Amino acid sequence: MADRKQYGALDLAKFIAAILIIVLHTAPFSSYSEVLSYGLRGIVTVVAVPFFFITSGFLFCTKLNLLPQDEKPRYFKAYIKRLAIMYLLWSAVYFVFVAISWVQNGVTVIDVLQYIKRFFFEGSYSTIWFLPALITAVAVVYLLLKRFSYMQIFCMAIPFYLIACLGSSYYGLSEKLPIVSNFFNLYYAFFDTVKNGLLFGFVYVALGGVFSEKQIERKPIKYLVLAGVFMCLMAVETVAQTYLNWSVRGVDTKLMLLPASVFIFLFVMSLNMKSGPAFVWMRKLSLLLFLSQRIFLTLFDYFLYDTVFVKNSMVYFISILGLTLIFSVCFIKLSEKCKVLKKFY
Q1: What CA–CA distance (Å, rounded) separates 312 from 323?
Q2: Three-state DSSP class for residue 184
Q3: For residue 130, what pLDDT is reported?
Q4: Strand, helix or coil at 278?
Q5: Which of 319, 164, 320 is nearest to 253 (CA)?
Q6: Residue 261: which of 206, 303, 215, 315 has the closest Cα?
Q7: 298: Cβ–Cβ under 8 A, 6 or more apart, which residues?
């Protein structure tokens, strides 16, 4: 079993990544500087979700590697079951907002079918798409592991990620290529996004598997410099995509995001920071911040849209972050008495 006591830096980084996702959704500097907001959105915050995928893959595979062969299926099933229950619980929470929308705007059979389709293929609500994507990615890696090594699986995942890039931040280019354009026209006739377990999560979970059997060097400066290099290249890529009007379906998938995520993860793991009570709290808070923030984002959109709490981007960010933190801390404390609540995180 992976020794979580050695992963203090990982817990801290996940906590920071969760905050970055809130930054991504609130754009705190958009009221003050378009350039700064653009840089945060397109270059900095996009590393957060890949980091969650890599970390999840790393921890899953690290434990899997240590188990006897006959115990691995049981562990895999328990892991997937835990994620599935978590997804069902959060879907139930967010379905309240879906139901309110249906009551306000009316609902058709098509709306219900669209929701069912999103539930299984894209995520029942914004942000929690991460959970079904992680289920898919872990399942694919686990099944392939029966015949291939982690590195071979990672190589298999790269073409899927390239498809995601062509369908998202390079979609403006894809539209100009007849065969590729026809493929994505067909794809988007059914799916709404490339952010799923196969096209997006697969490569990062596979990366986590690669790192799970490697001895990571204690060279944080080396990894930090390399992460910085690829972040700079990603900045150039982002500016070029914007200038050429290619990133018309989002900026979440970039070519340079993949190597940048590799070295960010290696930097974090090379710090060798032992965990403690504060880091345990960060570990719990990170996933709750990630999954619960959409509650407050939606409530603000419903009730405070024309107020300073939304119109001023920094006030918006601070309000969402503060409320999400308070909610998450209270939820963890309450779960100590009501154990069933731990299934949410």
Answers
A1: 16
A2: helix
A3: 97
A4: helix
A5: 164
A6: 206
A7: 94, 97
* Residues 234, 182, 163: CA angle, nearest 5 degrees: 30
pTM given for the model: 0.95
Give the Cα separation of 316 and 86 in Å (integer): 28
- Residue 213 · residue 161 · CB < 8 Å: no
All residues at 6 or more sequence positions from 191 whose CB lies less than 8 Å from its CB, including other chains: 121, 122
Q: Of 220, 195, 162, 238, whose CA–CA distance to 53 is shortest?
A: 195
Structural contact between residues 37 and 29, judged by C-beta atoms closer than 8 angstroms: yes
**Structure-token match 């914004």, residue found:** 126
Query: Residues near 113 by Cβ (< 8 Å), separated by ≥ 6?
Result: none
189 φ, ψ (degrees, to nearest 5): -70, -25
Q: Which two tokens stand for residue 66?
A: 């240590």
Q: What are phi and psi of 336, to 5 degrees?
A: -70, -25
Tokens of 127: 């942000």
CA 87, CA 91: separation in Å to the nearest integer?
Answer: 6
List the pLDDT tens digit at each of the 345 positions of the chain. 445 557 899 999 999 999 999 999 999 999 999 999 999 998 999 999 999 999 999 999 999 999 999 999 999 999 999 999 999 999 999 999 999 999 999 999 999 999 999 999 999 999 999 999 999 999 999 999 999 999 999 999 999 999 999 999 999 999 999 999 999 999 999 999 999 999 999 999 999 999 999 989 999 999 999 999 999 999 999 999 999 999 888 888 999 999 999 999 999 999 978 778 999 999 999 999 999 999 999 999 999 988 999 999 999 999 999 999 999 999 999 999 999 999 999
Closest CA to 23 of 5, 53, 44, 50: 44
Other Cβ atoms closer than 10 A to 219: 13
At residue 194's C-alpha, the angle toward residues 126 and 41, to 5°, is 65
List C-alpha distances in Å: 122 to 30, 40, 69, 140, 190. 28, 25, 32, 16, 11
Q: Residue 273, SS3?
A: coil
